[in-house]
Every structure is written in C-alpha cells, then in structure tokens.
C-alpha cells in the first residue's frame, strides 16, 4: 500500500491507476484540480489526478496571494459573486488557518479617483454585509488627517480620506499542495509530471487518456468513467487534443508582481489604490518584504514565454511612486518578481480588466467536462459544481447514489488545532517544541508559517540527521525540510522546492541563491539522481534564478527576439 505522498511513489501510483478504471480522472494539478480531487474523494469516488508539471506551478502559484471578496466586483454590480466568495473566504479561514492570514487593507480616496468617499463608505458597508464579515473586522471610514496618521507615506494632495477594511493573505502554492495532500489522505491518487498525450475513445466518448511520465518516460493508459479538464490556462490546449475547441474559449490576461525589501516600501498595512491610468493595484507587506501588483494586460504568447518585462516592472514602479511619492522606488530596489496569467472566458468588446472572473462548465460532444474561468477564492465552490455534475452523470451510468459535498467542513492538512482552543495557541506550542528539539527560532517560525501543524512531521525528519548531544546545523535543518518535501509532498525537482514548496525565489532570493547547490545535492542523494540529472537540475535552477535579474523589454521582444 502506498502510504506516503512521496516522489518515490509516482511511478507506482501511475501503475495503480493503469490497473483499474477510475470513476473520475482530473487533468490539471492547480487549485481547481486540487479542489475537485478533494471533493470527489470525500464523496467516495475512485479519483485520479494528473499534472504535467508540478502542483500549482501555473496560475495557482502566481496570483496576488489574496483570499479576498473582490471589492471591484461590487462596483461591476456582481453582487452574487461578492456574496459567494465572501462565504468561501470565511470557510477557508476556518478550515485552513495556517494558509489564511487576516490582512488589514487601506483604500485611500482621492478627488477624481475610482471610488468617491460616500460611494466607498456605502460600498465597503455592503461588502462587509454581503461577505458576512465579523464585527471586529468591519470597515472603518477615515478623514484625511486620520488616513495620513495611519499611513504617512500616502500622497497628501487630493486625499479626501480612506476606507479601512480586511482582506486575507495566503500562500497560493502552499494552499494547492496542502489541499492535494488532504485529497490524498482521503483516498485520491495524485501524480505530478504526468503529461496527457492523447485521449482514448469508446463509441466516440472519452473513456481514458494516454499519459507519459515526464521523469521516467514510461507510458500509461488510464481509464475513467468521467474525465474533467481542469488545466487552468491550458484548458483550451486540452480541448484541442479532444478536437472540441469550439464556441467559448479562453482569453488570457497577464498579471505581474514585484517584490521589494520592506525598508524600501515600509507601509504599515496593505493598500489598494488607483494608478495614474485608472486601474487599481495592491501593495502588501509580507515578512521582510513588500510585494506590489498586479498588471492586467492581454497575453497571446506561449505559456513557456511568460515573463515579467521591463515595461511591466516600470509600470508598477511608476504607480507606487505616484501614490507614495516619498519612497522613490528604483529599478535596483526590485528583489524579485513573478508573472502569471488569468484564464478568463472571452467576452466580445471587453478589455482585460472588465472580463468576468466567473467560472463556467463546458461539456464537449465527447463528454469531456471542462471547468474554465474562476478565481482562487472560489475554488471550493467551483469544485462542488463540477463534482455535482460528475456524480449525476455517474448515477445515470451506474445507478449509484453519492454523498453530497462536505468540503466546507473538512480541515485542510496543516490546519488542525490539535486540542487547542485556537490556532495561535497551537502555533506557539509547535514553535516551542521545535526549540526544544534544537531548531533555531527563525527556522521554527518559518516552518510553522509554511507547514502549520505539519511542522511536527518536518520535526520527525530531524531524527535522521541530528547527532546525539550536538546542535542542529543549517545543513541538517535543510536536509530535514528536503526529506519532508520529497517524501511527503511529492517534490521531484530542485526548482519546485525553491519556488513552490518554500517560496524562497519570490520572498527570500538570497536564501534561495545561497542554498541552491545544497538543495540539488541533498535532493540528488534522496532521489538517486545520476550525474546527467544533477547537471540538468543545476541548469534549471540557474535558469530560474537568471530570470530574476534579466528582463526582456516587452512581450513584443519575446515574440520577435533580436538575434
């Protein structure tokens, strides 16, 4: 029996799925696929999931990292969406306290801005009411003096006041992997680096998929009664393979974020504000950094060409310097950055920022079910709709009844309170246990923030590296963390460890650079990499780190490179 969500078990999992027909196979290992896998597993379905890269490696690790109600959707009159995502935000805050952190947000109000003072007051009140916000976190309105007292860095010219309300910060990549682990714990079979190469049909209906293991190059045929395409920005590519890219299709918009040191943009809380061209962006403090985003531009290049450009960077720097004129951010202040795409549904005549963030289910003539659109906050509800459809179709095929959705009541892996009255007390107890086992305070804090109660499982990997009577070295701590990542989070490459499991290449670039060589060596020992694979891993890490410092001028330059 495969008891661990380990990279070493990947091939065995594919062989297991190859042996028996699944009730449901999900293509895509982002947040949507993870949510579907969890929901289906809880309802008792034999569920499998394949992801062509690593879990959350696409859109699900490149968002603004907010679980938020979407204030701008209220302005667009989308009351139902605000209400739904507000409820979803509360559910995730309850079930995954290690992944969702309350983040006070300032909405500065300027003469001639997007939101007037009265409209902001009414809008934030409605926002709180629709989203079911608890009283301590309900909005407060401030005059100009109060706003500047709270945030002295704000531009004072034209400032009328501010709204103060709450959003929730998250780690999108960690959210995806922890939901995958929860689905795994409930019986889902899940594999990364397993790429769809074609569909298998019976009587013109999809009945299975041809899959290649991108690490071993082995091929497998997986059969399922129902197949769901949850490939995010790649859903249209999957529909092409099925020959069903007809009618509705995606419109990809690109969003870029920058990271600067906190002392270069020392805001006291997050802020959501107008840019000179009338859009709105966030600045969000996180540990020792502040990140800025996002852009919203049409994206038409290939996914492997997706990059932050100088144009993107300069646009965001201008916007921040206009709102916080005393800061004077420069190009050299940018420590890191990321670019992602939003897989939105195309709507005639609408620009990138006007397109709806609603999700939609598309069923092809072959029976392939595609879930397209949507947003991070609404992933659970999206999954519920998909699995409701799947179970209704399975009932027609098999006559079996399936349980209703229960994901609103399931604690996500790492969010358990372990007998404590509140999660903060649980965190403190786990941190103290780390100190008692020789882990330094900073590492224990980082682990608790990353892994929640799963930090205890990381501690269990310390036994293999700690020598009796000696303290723990930095390399031993790293070895324990890597051991956990490989054996319990199916981490298969060094890039995935540095970017997705730790977030170091986003928020602690120096740490990523200093530890990259050790990560490759330790993972190589753990996974038995050959010299050729070690060289490949070094090249991939060097490429990732290189993109931080070398930006193309524009997307047009990427499309038409100069020799």
Outline the structure in words:
The structure is a single chain. This protein has 563 residues and is an alpha+beta fold. 40% of the residues lie in helices and 22% in strands. The protein is built from 19 helices and 18 strands. The strands form two sheets. Strands 3, 4, 5, 6, 11, 12, 13, 14, 15 and 16 form a ten-stranded mixed β-sheet that branches. Strands 1, 2, 7, 8, 9, 10, 17 and 18 form an eight-stranded mixed β-sheet that branches. Strand 8 (194-202) and strand 9 (205-213) form a beta hairpin. The chain is globular. It starts with 9 loop residues before the first helix and ends with a helix. The mean pLDDT is 93.
Q: What quaternary form is this?
A: single chain
Rg is: 23 Å
Approximately how much helix is present in the residues? 25-40%
- Our count of helices gives 19
Low-confidence stretches: none
Helix/strand-derived category reads alpha+beta
- Kindly report the average pLDDT value: 93
The proportion of residues in beta strands is: 15-25%
* Total strands: 18
Major sheet details: 10 strands, mixed
Q: What's the end-to-end separation, in Å?
A: 54 Å
- Overall geometry comes to globular
Secondary structure layout:
Elements: H1 10-19, E1 22-27, H2 31-42, E2 47-50, E3 66-67, H3 71-75, H4 79-95, E4 100-110, H5 117-131, E5 140-143, H6 144-150, E6 159-170, H7 172-185, E7 189-191, E8 194-202, E9 205-213, E10 219-229, H8 235-242, E11 250-261, E12 270-274, E13 280-286, E14 289-293, E15 297-298, H9 310-323, E16 334-345, E17 359-363, E18 369-373, H10 379-398, H11 423-436, H12 441-451, H13 455-460, H14 474-488, H15 494-501, H16 504-507, H17 509-527, H18 531-549, H19 555-559
Parallel strand pairs: 1-2, 1-10, 2-7, 4-12, 10-18
Antiparallel strand pairs: 3-6, 4-6, 5-6, 8-9, 9-10, 11-14, 11-15, 11-16, 12-13, 13-14, 17-18
